[in-house]
Amino acid sequence: MRGSAGRVVAPRRALGFRGVDAGQDQACLARVGISIIAAVKRPAASGTKPPSRRRKPAPTRRPVVLVTGLSGAGRNTALNALEDHGYVAVDNLPLFLVDDLLRPGTGDAHPLALGIDVRSGGFTTPAVVDHVRDLRARADLDVRLLYLDCDNDVLLRRFTETRRAHPLARDRPVLDGIIDERRLLQPLRDHADVTIDTSQLAPQELKALMLGHFARRAEAGLRIAVMSFSFRRGLPRESDLVFDARFLRNPHYVEALRPYTGRDGGVARYVKADKDFKGFFRGITSLLEPLLPRFDTEGKSYLTVAVGCTGGRHRSVLVAEELADWLRRRGRVVTLTHRDLEAGAARPVAGIGRTG
Questions:
Q1: 68 within domain boundaries
Q2: Reduced to 3 states, what is the DSSP secondary structure of residue 298?
Q3: Are residues 163 and 245 in the same domain?
Q4: Do residues 268 and 317 make contact, with C-beta atoms less than 8 angstroms apart?
Q5: What value, to the nearest 5°, has the Cα angle with vertex 188 and ends 72 and 176?
Q6: CATH code for the domain of 105
Q7: Nearest-10 Cα torsion for 334, 337, 338, 344
Q8: Which of 99, 193, 224, 313 is most buried, by CB atoms within 10 Å?
Q9: Average pLDDT per run of 10 along the chain, which is 356 residues long?
Q10: Would you say residue 164 lies in a domain?
């Protein structure tokens, strides 16, 4: 069955392949364990010089991301983000089919994202842990386990707002199901390569984090996320470095500037006029200059730098904007987000509207 744009459309209850184009039929077959191999050997003509032997390049390891975590924490958003960046995404694949899908010799090195949760066929925590260990031991795969976490009260609100049933609480309170699932999945959290807490993340912020962590490594290098935030709403849990801009003079107390943000010229000029602004910003960049090459050397793929102020609208926004510009001028790959810029407005959060 094909959609109007030539995209292969499979029933939702099929294996759940996502992002497979019509021109990828052979690759699609390979992904379910069927390979089509055509090899023709031609004898060398008499008198011709045999081809010189060249060292074979090291085999490419196929990127595989296993996405798991609490129901409602944003698994579907995470899978969509990976699909947008070149992964083939498969959700709720029964465990007994994982080995077939990743069978050696299928000839497909396309990046793969597998969504696994308590509804996956054959799911038990020990079985998933064993599968992860076995896959990590394979030389042809680059396997990473992503665990999506979230606070209980946020999950409870998401399920209440969407009126969806929790998979472990069909006939009892939702909170009971959340608590049981958290206990059930704790061993997976302990084995995760990456843990992301989505309690305060909007969908686009989660997608930006996914890009930073799981963009194809040959294309990515060190990716830097710069984020502004409000201390009133808590520290960003994913941050590696945190800078406090609350000592700078505050435009909030200037009535003419209060409605604006750190992106606006008047606010920027006011904050930069603080006698300590230049020294503060120079201190941040002086810290980063020697750190970034070391992060490159050790192969670090992602760095989150957070800048906070009281309300997350003026000082932190300006400093984050300036820092992102400084990094980009030095050739760095940067994503910039302002977590609490619109704190007073209704704000979608990763995971709302779905239970994945």
A1: yes
A2: helix
A3: no
A4: no
A5: 45
A6: 3.40.50.300
A7: 170
A8: 313
A9: 35 40 39 31 46 54 91 92 87 82 71 84 81 90 93 92 84 90 93 91 84 64 90 90 97 95 96 97 97 86 92 97 95 90 49 39
A10: yes
**Same domain, yes or no, for 229 and 185?**
no
Direct distance between the N- and C-terminal alpha carbons of the chain, in angstroms, rounded to an integer: 26
Q: Which amino acid is at 137?
A: A
| Claim to verify: residue 183 and residue 128 sit in the same structural domain | yes
The number of folded domains in the chain is 2
Query: Can you spell out the DSSP letters for 306-337?
Result: EEEESSSSSHHHHHHHHHHHHHHHTT-EEEEE
Give how far Cα 261 sits from Cα of 126, 228, 281, 340, Å.
50, 12, 18, 11
User: In this structure, what token pair is assigned to residue 118?
Assistant: 């308590």
Tokens describing residue 224: 């830097």
Q: Which residue range is the domain that position 240 belongs to? A: 222-338
The amino acid occupying position 171 is D
3-class state of residue 202 by DSSP: coil
Which residues pair with residue 21 across a beta bridge?
A: 7
| Tokens encoding 19 | 């992002």
Cβ pair 153, 175 in contact under 8 A = no
